[in-house]
Amino acid sequence: MYGWLSSALLLALWWGLAAMLQDRALPAPPAVLAALRSELAAGALLPALAATLGRVVAAFLLAMILGSALGYAMGRWRAAGAVADPWVTLLLNIPALVVILLAYIWFGQTEAAAIGAVALAKLPNVVVVVREGARALDPALDEVARLYRFGPLMRLREVVLPQLAPFLAAAARSGLAIVWKVVLVVELLGRPSGVGFELHLRFQLFDVAGLLAYSLAFAGVMLLVEAVALRPAEKRARAWRHAAA
Amino acid sequence: MPPLELRIRRKAQPRAEGPPLEVLRDVALDFPTGSVTAVLGPSGCGKTTLLRILTGLDTAFEGSVHHRPRRIGMVFQEPRLLPWRSLADNLRMVAAAAGLPPPRPEALLERVGLEGWATRLPGELSLGMARRAALARALAVQPELLVLDEPFASLDSESAGRIRALLAELLAEGRTTTVLVTHALEDAAELAGRVAVLTARPGTLSALLDVPPAARREPAVLRAALVQA
Question: Which residue intervals define the domain ABC transporter in the entry (chain B) (predicted)?
Answer without folding.
Answer: 8-221
